[in-house]
Amino acid sequence: MSDILSGKTVIVTGAASGIGRAIALGVAGHGAGAVIVSDIQAEPREGGRPTAELIRDLGVQSRFVRADVSKRADNDGLVGAAQEFGGVDVMVLNAGISLRADGFDVAEDDYRRLMSINLDGPLFGAQAAARQMKALGKAGSIVLMGSMGGLAGAGITVAYSTSKGGVTLMAKALADALGPDGIRVNAVAPGTIDTELLRSTPPIAAAAEGFRQRTPLRRLGQPSEVGDAVAFLGSDLSSYITGIALQVDGGLLSVI
Ligand SMILES: NC(=O)c1ccc[n+]([C@@H]2O[C@H](COP(=O)([O-])OP(=O)(O)OC[C@H]3O[C@@H](n4cnc5c(N)ncnc54)[C@H](O)[C@@H]3O)[C@@H](O)[C@H]2O)c1
Question: Which GO molecular function annotations are given, in alphabetical order (predicted)?
């Protein structure tokens, strides 16, 4: 596809399935030197062969590292695994979940589990990556997975929107904290993307057709389209861009 990530080592969390899988395959197609695929499970939720195997088929170095993003030690271990490939250049903190019931009365256990994955996860991952980038003197790029749900609220995703709103501001705060070291931090904010997360979350699946009709491009997004946006933010093509939330939503949030 391109060589915009030539020679770079990329880590992607939640990369067994869906958008993370497409990001991992996408960065490999855009020239990454090595891709570390991380998840709590190697098997894609939607079926098919594990992501790392497909990347190796493309002739790109890849290995799977099992890590639960809600655990600080797992994030540290994951970033440590990149030493084998010269250290991480692009850290993509994609892993996230939605809830089957996420209204105003969301259950406490569900709320805490979601926050630990969607909000603690990216902070611990960004901390681990930034420590290594600083130690190795790398002007790296950290990409956080936000959402249109982190830019506008929805009554069917109260905890989810709260977590993704946090991710949007986390990108801005970390951009300020790490910019002096040359490390950029951005978020991507996908709209309605056709994945298992969407299909297996009944309130979101039910709303998807309405979102599609209001989307200027009149279709759902494909995971690979998020992958291309992440490749751009990870590459030197975006060298003066930090602290943004890049909408990848077919225009949905830009219209009323
Ligand atoms: N699908 C959409 O429409 C959409 C829209 C906006 C944002 N997003 C965000 O994109 C990201 C990926 O979503 P998706 O649709 O590909 O979901 P998905 O369910 O298809 O894939 C998510 C992956 O994350 C992994 N995961 C779950 N908990 C984990 C943990 N604790 N540690 C590590 N990995 C874990 C899962 O095993 C799975 O492989 C999420 O952050 C989601 O919030 C999705």
Answer: oxidoreductase activity, acting on the CH-OH group of donors, NAD or NADP as acceptor
State mean pLDDT over 129-148. Answer: 98
How much of the chain, in percent, has pLDDT values that exceed 90? 96
CA 244 – CA 171 distance, rounded (Å) = 7
Q: What is the pLDDT of residues 214-236, one digit of tens each?
A: 999 999 999 999 999 999 999 99
* Calpha distance 226→13 (Å, rounded): 14
Nearest CA to ligand 1 atom 4: 193
Q: What pLDDT is attached to residue 141?
A: 99
Question: How much is the mean pLDDT over the chain?
Answer: 97
Helices (H), 58-138: 72-81, 108-115, 121-136
- Whether domain 9-254 has CATH 3.40.50.150: no
Residue 213 has pLDDT above 90, yes or no: yes
203 CA distance to ligand 1 middle (Å): 16
Which residue's CA is the closest to the ligand 1 atom numbered 1? 193
Apex 85 CA angle, 84 and 89, nearest 5: 130
- Catalytic positions are 147, 160, 164
How large is the average pLDDT for residues 101-113? 98
What is the whole-number distance in angstroms between the Cα of residue 162 and the centre of ligand 1?
A: 16
Per-domain residue ranges of the chain? 9-254
**What integer pLDDT is reported at residue 240 of this predicted model?**
98
Give the helix/strand (H/E) hosting 26: helix 18-29
Between CA 44 and CA 21 the distance in angstroms is: 8
Q: Are 97 and 114 in contact (CB under 8 A)?
A: yes
Taking residues 235-256, report their average pLDDT: 98
Please work out whether the CB of residue 63 comes within 6 Å of at least one atom of ligand 1: no
